[in-house]
Design brief:
two-stranded antiparallel ribbon; 375 residues; seven-stranded mixed beta sheet; Dehydroquinate synthase-like, alpha domain; binds nicotinamide-adenine-dinucleotide; globular; alpha/beta
Amino acid sequence: MLEGSLRIGSAAVPYRYGTDCADALCASIAALRPASAVLAVDEAVLAHAEPLLRRLERRMPVHPFVIAPAEQHKRLSLVESLLDHAVAHRADRTSVILAMGGGLVGNVAGLAASLLYRGVRLVHLPTTPVAAFDAVLSLKQGANLRAGKNLCGAYLAPSLICCDLTWLATLPRPHLLTGVTEMAKNVLAVVPGRKDAFREALARLPKHPVESFDALCELGLAAKAPFLATDPHERNEALVFEYGHTVGHALESLSAGAMSHGEAVAWGMLAAAEVSAQLGLLDQADVDSHYALLSALRLPSARTALGDVDRAALAARLATDNKRGHIPSPAGSVPMVLLRRLGEPVTDADGRPLAPVPIEIAVEAFEKVAANEVI
Ligand SMILES: NC(=O)c1ccc[n+]([C@@H]2O[C@H](COP(=O)([O-])OP(=O)(O)OC[C@H]3O[C@@H](n4cnc5c(N)ncnc54)[C@H](O)[C@@H]3O)[C@@H](O)[C@H]2O)c1
């Protein structure tokens, strides 16, 4: 069992990551002494929830609320339905909301927990690598608006994070890739010393997924923990976790769902590395390390994945990137996380790891990635 306490700003968040550990997880939840629990659960993980539910129901009333996760459902209307469900089942201020599923369920249940009676306790039970090693290590809770992803939300620290790593093993490959890519990002932008550990975890993933998750979990905690302690709202130095997400978000949204978030971020990191090199910040050996590490993810070839991307449409998407406003950026530029060495972002005078990049340079860098012969 990997357990400890994570400091997120002033909050100390206990976490427990184990295998086949329903009894231990149930005991940790019961130790919060809630009057009752509302279990917001992803419909894809009901089989994983069942052993936990059986144990919890011996200790407290539990009211499941099943969510069919899709980004178009991640709306305030879903949050409201969850709140209505909690109140209809007489949840009180000592009740807990349990969020069992991927990042989507975690965000929706987290937003509901921040709103119910102006705040009840939240327990994360993540079932995807994105959720387990990234999204739950955050205060950010949110929902989508018609105009875009995660445009409304709140900050709430979970009271507990509990994860049985065997839950993650049933996730289909494209979703697995997203979590693994976020860990590759941690290696390239934050903890390059863990490159070998990451490669080993990746090699073990097909045959020994749970051992692999164990290593990826350590990597996620090691990368994120120091930043959450000092920048819990992820507005300053923790913006480094946006590495690859500028060109990545643009590609993801242009593909209208055809390209996974993970794949898009992988191409986005290569583009960020090429921009960094073009601006004379990053040397070629570190750019090559990006290609070497990310080729291990077995992405489709760059020509197949990127050949048809419309350059003008890409430039237009970059111009509306959601990091605008974090730093002043002149017209025609987009804020990006750039590196001067692996694990060493370029920072502004206030220590924020963002730099304004002329959009035509970002597009040129993308073209280099699209024409590369390695991936
Ligand atoms: N800091 C943050 O708050 C943060 C960080 C990263 C992502 N997010 C959010 O998280 C969401 C993405 O999360 P995600 O990648 O976990 O995807 P997800 O929650 O959308 O789940 C992806 C798919 O996997 C299924 N699934 C979940 N667990 C499963 C399991 N163990 N076995 C089989 N199927 C399973 C779900 O039903 C769904 O179809 C986005 O909405 C994103 O905005 C938030």
